[in-house]
Amino acid sequence: MKMEMIDRYVYGVTKRLPEEQRADIGDEVRGLIEDMLDERVQGRDVTEEDVREVLLELGHPRSLARKYQGNKKYIIGPELYDFYVLIAKIALISTVVGLTAIFLIKVILSPINIIDDFVDYIVSFITTIPMVIGWVTIGFVLAEYFDENKFAQIKLDNNWDPSNLTPIPDPKRQIKRCEPITSIVIYVFVIVMLVFSNEYFGIWIFQQGEFSGIVPFLNEAEYSSFLILILIVCGFGILKECLKLFYERWTYSLVTFTAIVNLVSITIFFYLLNENRFWNPDFMNELVQNGIVTNGSDNYQVIKIIWEQMTLWGLVILVLGLIWDVVTGFIKVRKAR
Amino acid sequence: MSKINEHVDKLLQELRRGTITIGALSQLYEPQYGYSLVTTLKEKGVQVEPGTLYPLLRRLEKQGLLESQWDTSEARPRKYYLLSQTGKEVLDLLRVEWQNIARSMNVLMEEETNEDGDD
User: Fold this and answer.
1) How many domains does one find in chain B?
2) pLDDT (tens digit, 9 = 90+) per residue, A12-22?
3) Lowest-confidence segment of A276-285, B15-24, B81-90 by average pLDDT
4) What CATH number corresponds to the domain at position B57?
5) Domain Transcription regulator PadR N-terminal spans what residues (chain B) (predicted)?
6) 3-state secondary structure of A264
């Protein structure tokens, strides 16, 4: 417990400092604490109370970290900076992937317009990328501002106690970074596809090697009304994954938040799919009209069954996935206790 | 009374902030690690919190006035600081300046006491 309290304190100081200084300052602070303990105990055994008093004398890890930072002011401080860069990278990669996918789809559908599409593609980079980076940055600037709302915290800093120091992340509860990153990329990809190119989401019909049309999966008449719901679900999904990345480990509050988000998502999906407004109601008829299948043939029956079952199984897989997300989180928190 | 104490504290803090840097530099002709410097300064009547001194030493090193080296030969690795060549030259010049300031300040402050005494 004594060592752990020191470890936590050192962690509390160094996590607020630029990465390249962490190891060195960490060693220095640890050495300082040990020197102070030596002086205090004069040869007798160190008790937990000694550690507590020494840490109190040094002050809140945040204020010690501030002294190490000097008087520099940050728009996004070292505590958030690494995370900011990570999220900005993810957002950029997802945007590039999404825009490229749209460009490729357009080229496949009408190769003749490739020059126009390419110009659109380049223009969309110039308009979209600053917007994405801008929003990410604004989000972090706000987080920094509210996190560091100096006045409230300086008061808090004066009655802190070493026993409430934040624990160092435990590897057993650790969330692997690649998991939330993959999820965020998928969410962003889904959003980009739904917003910019939902009309390409369906069965593509080629006649004599020429593209002639699409039988859409989605109900285009109702599309705009449920798009907003899907965007809300994706937005909360991204927030959830960002929290996983930020905390780097499962906690009860993270599990609770995940559970709420997933429950809301499941409810919204049930609503969408049960209302029978989500999927294209004339899907089978349009297939027949485009000569893909003939009414009454075996193929027609198979496709009809697949089409009807798709909703059910899609929903089952989705629900299981979301429940699994919460269950693994819960198990990992429990295991670490 | 507490108002007066507040003023005194604040002014003293400002005064110390400036002097602590020169004070620390002056003790580093021989290598010392952070806590031994805290103790040395304390013995000579200069109180400084380690939470202030450690970051200060690091800043002075970054500015090139100090050099540092980790000593790992003992049970506990410690970072030793020492005046750099620049640091020595700077300190020599500062010493002269300080003596001037101290002399003038003494004159000023004694005037004040004398006036008080005359009243």
Assistant:
1) 1
2) 898 888 888 88
3) A276-285
4) 1.10.10.10
5) 30-91
6) helix
